[in-house]
């Protein structure tokens, strides 16, 4: 499917926002614009919506927005609202299966140890195996061949026929596991390095991360547009790594692999994004909320 220009996508979205009378703060509106453009252009398969309100109102507004968007432009027809416990996401059900089928090996930062240690994804640890089971659940829910037909139906539980077709609830994925939301988000949001800790080690993880300097990795993009307002750099996504466990991305396998796949996606949608860059900054120890 050909992706329209950023101007056409955002013009449609702004019109729909007005129709449902969703008045977002300027910062939240820009984040929603970037996130929707990222989903529609294939730059990201999943985005987390942690702005614009709280559940259940936020869920209702997103569903109302998607209903109008999908009536207006075909490019929006693959977008869905997904909920996992009290977290809400927008996903692209066409690009998500491809990402699940080709996702690179993860690197973990084990926050249960002090100092934290970096390691590759392992099948041997109990927590690692539980995350693997969650990944398999996602792969079966969003198969590459589309056999679950999630592009047109969404309720995982067929008995919940009253659920709107644009809504997917995957809260079940965390049941009977010690996998935390930050660990799940690290994988789901396509970070190359994921913080790993169990629900029984949250306090240790907070302490171990709060007492360490961090390197902040930001993927910055520039929209293709005609107005000066759209020409500045904006954050597409960002993640952090403890300072002592990273050389700022220089000659690091995970960083090189991450930048390579982001550049590969960008090559397919340069009519939407003018530029893409990875910038690294430093952050001194501070209180962390996980």
Q: Could you name the key traits of this structure?
A:
10 strands, 290 residues, alpha+beta, 3-stranded mixed beta sheet, 21% strand, 8 helices
Strand order, sheet with most strands? 1-3-2-6
**By helix and strand content, what is the structural category?**
alpha+beta
Average pLDDT figure: 90
Ends apart, CA distance between termini? 38 Å
Count, helices: 8
Question: Helicity range of the residues?
Answer: 25-40%
What are the low-pLDDT stretches, counting only 5+ consecutive residues below 50?
151-164
Using the alpha-carbon principal axes, give the shape: globular
Integer-rounded radius of gyration = 19 Å
What's the helix-strand series? HHEHEEHEEHEHEHEEHE
* Proportion in β-strands: 15-25%
- Sketch the major β-sheet: 4 strands, mixed
Number of strands: 10
Structure description:
The protein is of the alpha+beta class. Helix content is 35%, strand content 21%. A hairpin with a 2-residue loop joins strand 2 and strand 3. Helix 1 (6-19) crosses helix 3.
Summed up:
The protein is an alpha+beta fold and 290 residues long.
SSE layout and pairings?
Blueprint: H1 6-19, H2 26-41, E1 46-48, H3 57-72, E2 79-84, E3 87-92, H4 95-102, E4 107-110, E5 117-120, H5 126-141, E6 167-169, H6 181-188, E7 193-196, H7 202-210, E8 214-223, E9 234-242, H8 253-267, E10 273-283
Parallel strand pairs: 2-6, 4-7
Antiparallel strand pairs: 1-3, 2-3, 4-5, 8-9, 8-10
Helix pairs in contact: 1-3
């Amino acid at each position: 499917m050909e992706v329209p220009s950023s101007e056409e996508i955002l013009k449609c979205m702004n019109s729909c926002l007005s129709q449902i009378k969703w008045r977002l703060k300027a910062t939240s509106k820009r984040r929603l614009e970037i996130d929707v453009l990222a989903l529609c252009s294939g730059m990201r398969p999943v985005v987390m919506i942690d702005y614009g309100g709280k559940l259940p109102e936020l869920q209702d507004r997103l569903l109302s927005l998607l209903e109008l968007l999908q009536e207006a432009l075909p490019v929006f027809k693959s977008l869905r609202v997904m909920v996992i416990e009290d977290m809400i996401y927008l996903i692209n059900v066409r690009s998500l299966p491809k990402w699940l089928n080709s996702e690179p090996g993860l690197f973990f930062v084990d926050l249960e140890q002090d100092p934290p240690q970096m390691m590759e994804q392992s099948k041997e640890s109990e927590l690692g195996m539980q995350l693997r089971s969650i990944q398999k659940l996602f792969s079966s829910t969003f198969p590459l061949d589309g056999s679950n037909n999630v592009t047109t139906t969404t309720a995982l539980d067929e008995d919940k026929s009253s659920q709107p077709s644009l809504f997917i609830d995957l809260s079940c994925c965390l049941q009977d596991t010690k996998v935390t939301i930050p660990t799940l988000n690290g994988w789901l949001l396509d970070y190359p390095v994921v913080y790993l800790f169990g629900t029984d080690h949250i306090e240790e993880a907070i302490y171990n991360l709060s007492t360490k300097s961090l390197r902040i990795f930001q993927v910055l993009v520039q929209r293709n547009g005609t107005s000066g307002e759209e020409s500045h750099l904006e954050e597409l996504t960002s993640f952090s790594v403890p300072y002592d466990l990273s050389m700022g991305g220089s000659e690091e396998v995970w960083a090189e692999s991450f930048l390579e796949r982001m550049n590969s996606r960008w090559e397919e949608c340069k009519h939407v994004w003018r530029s893409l860059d990875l910038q690294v900054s430093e952050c001194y120890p501070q209180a962390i909320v996980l």
